[in-house]
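Give me structure tokens for this 69-residue protein.
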Amino acid sequence: MTTVMTCSNPAEAELLHSLLTENGIDAFVLDDAFGGVIRLQVADGQETEARRILDEAARTPEAQDTAGE
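Here you go.
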């Protein structure tokens, strides 16, 4: 497994997890039991595609609108 992103917000991690799984990526959310960083991981062979999907999502107008909130 490879970590493709870290999040501090569980809702963000779950949203990105859903985005990846909807696009055929085997993704998993690993939550730190002590309230630290939440890791979004994918199967090793899917890392490149997962990063492409996440990068594309970060560039959408919706993502930019919510980034300033």
